[in-house]
Amino acid sequence: MVEKYLHLYRHLYGVDYCIVRLANPYGERQDWNNKQGLIATFLYNICEGKPIEIWGDGTIVRDYFYIRDAMKCLKRILPYTGNSRIFNVGSGEGFSINEVVQKIIEVTGKNPQIVYTKNRKLDVQINILDIKLAKTELGWEPETSLDKGIAIVYTWMSKTLRV
Question: 77 CB contacts (<8 Å, ≥6 apart)?
Answer without folding.
Answer: 18, 20, 87, 138
